[in-house]
Design a protein that fits this description.
Distance between the termini: 40 Å
Order of helices and strands: EEEEEEEEEEE
Strand content: over 45%
Radius of gyration: 13 Å
Number of helices: 0
Shape: globular
Length: about 120
C-alpha cells in the first residue's frame, strides 16, 4: 500500500523559510513523478510543483521565485523549500505521486498546515 506522509509545516513569521518533507512507503522511483499541491482557506487545491524521476522540476508561475522542490531517492523523500514566506502562502500543503502509467497524480498524503503570520 502506498503511503505519503508530509511533515515540516508550522507557524512562521513573514519572511521566514520552511522545508516541507514527504516520505513515501515505497521507492519513489516507483512513481512517474511526485508533486506538491496546496489548498488555501476557502480556495480550491492548486498545483505548486512537481519533480520527475530524472530530477527535472516544474513550478506554477507563482512558485518559481521562492519555491524549490527536490528529492532524495535513498530516503524515499521529496522536499519543498519555501523561502521569503508571505501570508498568502498560508495553506495546507499536500504531497502527491503519480503512478508510472497514470495520467494524473493518484496518490495523496494527508497534508501539512503552513501558516504565515506575524
Amino acid at each position: 500500500q502506498v503511503r505519503l506522509v508530509e511533515s515540516g509545516g508550522g507557524v512562521v513569521l513573514p519572511g521566514g523559510s520552511l522545508r516541507l518533507s514527504c516520505s513515501a512507503s515505497i521507492s519513489i522511483f516507483s512513481f512517474g513523478a511526485m508533486g506538491w499541491y496546496r489548498q488555501a482557506p476557502g480556495k480550491q487545491r492548486e498545483f505548486v510543483a512537481a519533480i520527475a524521476n530524472g530530477g527535472s522540476t516544474n513550478y506554477t508561475d507563482s512558485a518559481k521565485s521562492r519555491y524549490t522542490m527536490s528529492r532524495d531517492n535513498a530516503k524515499r523523500t521529496v522536499y519543498l523549500q519555501i523561502d521569503s514566506l508571505k501570508p498568502e502562502d498560508t495553506a495546507v500543503y499536500y504531497c502527491a505521486a503519480k503512478g508510472m502509467f497514470a495520467s494524473d497524480f493518484n496518490f495523496w498524503g494527508q497534508g501539512t498546515q503552513v501558516t504565515v503570520s506575524s
